[in-house]
Specification:
The structure holds 2 protein chains of 2 kinds.
Chain A lengths: L3 E4 L2 E4 L5 E7 L5 E7 L5 E9 L2 E4 L6 E3 L9 E3 L8 E8 L11 E2 L3 E5 L1
Parallel strand pairs in A: 2-11
Antiparallel strand pairs in A: 1-3, 3-8, 4-5, 4-9, 5-6, 7-8, 9-10, 9-11
Chain B lengths: L2 E4 L4 E4 L4 E3 L1 E4 L5 E7 L5 E7 L5 E4 L2 E4 L9 E3 L8 E8 L8 E2 L3 E6 L1
Parallel strand pairs in B: 2-12
Antiparallel strand pairs in B: 1-4, 3-9, 5-6, 5-10, 7-8, 8-9, 10-11, 10-12
Classes of the chains: A mainly beta, B mainly beta.
């Protein structure tokens, strides 16, 4: 099973460049989200989606854009990269159904982004 | 608002030592609680979870009990191995299936042979 797939795994950007981090899941999950991981701060929620066509902001949304045109895909766009966006990014998904297995949130392997 | 606090690291132990990583939380209602592990250079893996008070999650020799009276979910292992060296994250999902997690800051564990 592929689970949650993120690409690219590593990326170096110059300040001001834009790029898209891709995220796809093959579990037919309704909920998808993006987190960033920074030293000493754990993971912080950037944006999330509860279904196709529905997105909302998390704790740290500035400088990022998302869309959810299909259930499977949830890309994260950096509009104009800044050094403060150097981080590790994780995509996650989970089922929207109210059963115990729906409590499990699955993560991708992460995308290491450096902005110089 | 909801929050998770973990003990600060790094935690350095000798092989076969007993491990405790403290985690406390603040939340309304009845959250679900999780421990995730991140091995060097890898992504997050779910280690264990508990969805209601007094539940005990366990996996790979690790255990954590959901204590509502002390709002805690401490991670324990009786005998750590070098291969357990990783960063451990405590996380909370508020009641209702929102698909969103609130993480603690992470605790780095280093186990020396």
């Amino acid at each position: 099973n592929a689970g949650v797939t993120q690409t690219p795994k590593f990326q170096v950007l110059k300040t001001g460049q834009s790029m898209t981090l891709q995220c796809a899941q093959d579990m037919n999950h309704e909920y998808m989200s993006w987190y960033r991981q920074d030293p000493g701060m754990g993971l912080r929620l950037i944006h999330y989606s509860v279904g196709a066509g529905i997105t909302d902001q998390g704790e740290v949304p500035n400088g990022y854009n998302v869309s959810r045109s299909t259930t499977e895909d949830f890309p994260l766009r950096l509009l104009s990269a800044a050094p403060s966006q150097t981080s590790v990014y994780f995509c996650a998904s989970s089922s929207g159904q109210a059963r115990s297995s729906g409590n499990t949130i699955y993560f991708g392997e992460g995308s290491w982004l450096t902005v110089v | 608002g909801n929050s998770v606090t973990q003990m600060e690291g790094p935690v350095t132990l000798s092989e076969e030592a007993f491990l405790t990583i403290n985690c406390t939380y603040t939340a309304t209602g009845y959250p679900s609680l999780f421990w995730y592990v991140q091995y060097p250079g890898e992504g997050l893996q779910l280690l264990l979870k508990a969805t209601k008070a007094d539940d005990k999650g366990s996996n790979k020799g690790f255990e954590a009990t959901y204590r509502k009276e002390t709002t805690s979910f401490h991670l324990e292992k009786g005998s750590v191995q070098v291969s357990d060296s990783a960063v451990y994250f405590c996380a909370l999902k508020s009641s209702g299936n929102t698909g969103k997690l609130i993480f603690g800051q992470g605790t780095t564990l280093q186990v020396k042979p």
